[in-house]
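User: Please predict the structure of the protein below. I'd like the answer in structure-token form so I can feed it into my own downstream comparison script.

Assistant: Understood. Taking the following sequence of 435 residues as input:
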Amino acid sequence: MPRKKLKQLVGSLQLLVKTRLWAQILAGMLLGITTGLLLSPSGAALVSEENAYAISGWLALPGYVFLALVKMVVIPLILSSIILGLTSSGDPAYLKRISLRIFPYFAVMATTAVVIGISLSMLIQPGKYVDSELISSAMGGVKAEAVAAPVGAAESISLPERIVSLIPTNPLGAALEGQMLQVVIFAILMGIALVGIAETRAKPLLDMLDSLREVSMKVVSWAMMLAPYAVFGLLSQVTIKVGLATLLGMSVYVGTVLLGLFIVLCWYLVIAAVFAKRSPLEFLRAIREVQLLAFSTSSSAAVMPLSIKTAEEKLGIRPAIAQFIVPLGATVNMDGTACYQVIAAVFLTQVFGIELTLASLILLTITTVGASIGTPSAPGVGIVILATILQTIGVPPGGIALIIGVDRILDMSRTAVNVTGDLAACAVMNKWLKK
């Protein structure tokens, strides 16, 4: 009898995993972390350090294949989704209404996330808990110079030149270089132009874009079959390389960032409850698959197709809104990243004894909000953008090496918050823009 019950239990579990993506991803996360701790040199160390790193590369292979497949179609998917989302209404007045609401909304939410980050880091002061030996070892690292190098050339570019550079004079070049904000602006301009011309003239291009989006979604559906294995491999590799020792050494800083991200997440739930009349628990239940996949892949672009599907099918968002806001939010609405970056910046000023005046805090807020807009939705990019912010407040570039070790864990967490913000924005706009 017990064996029969056990068999029934296993059968129920298998059915759950087969039919629910969130269960598959959660299982992959748990198995990945466990495997990583068993193989990590700072964990159980079942194998040598050299073999552990070699094994981690093979374990992460499905994850890299998954990310490569999604990255392959993310440009055509963003282009087609934004243009079709804008033209689906066929009403220029509607485009004006949604634009006048969504961009101020994104700006207010990003500023709120930055204020939360500054307040927490000034209250907790995580930089006071860092060992001086950790600082000296970080300053001697080479990685920090490599990270900071790409942003050095951007110092000589004036603000008017940066604004003009947002307009893609060569859309194909912007796509090849991964300039996502330029791609989004090109798609928005194309969508507005198509609404303004005769329907018979616009229809052939719209039909082609519709087919392009269907093809992209098909490739994404193939990639989603790898998602649980990708999650397992990527988390195994992260746990093997990071280990517990690094996390414990920076525990106060990591805890401050995670607390800030949690507060931003709760703020989203409050906004969705007040303005969109969404129950927080029901909202979280509807988007859990997106959050888990975003946490595991550290890429808003990778989960964008699932975000659109979740918004339309589980949240009941109109396609015109979901297909415009989700791709736009994956490039512009990076509140989790903004909160992380400002906490990291203040943390490093505390570590190196740099005093922040009120003017410095205002400059830091403006710089962080600006830098978070247009941050490429790919893993690890946040640390590069952070280098730009640090230069404005006098933090040595070598200080980045101090936080590189734990950046992957925080990158996963802030990506989950970012996609939650996109879906919350969809819910709010869906309520505000009733037909």
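That's the full token string. The chain is about 80% helix and 0% strand.
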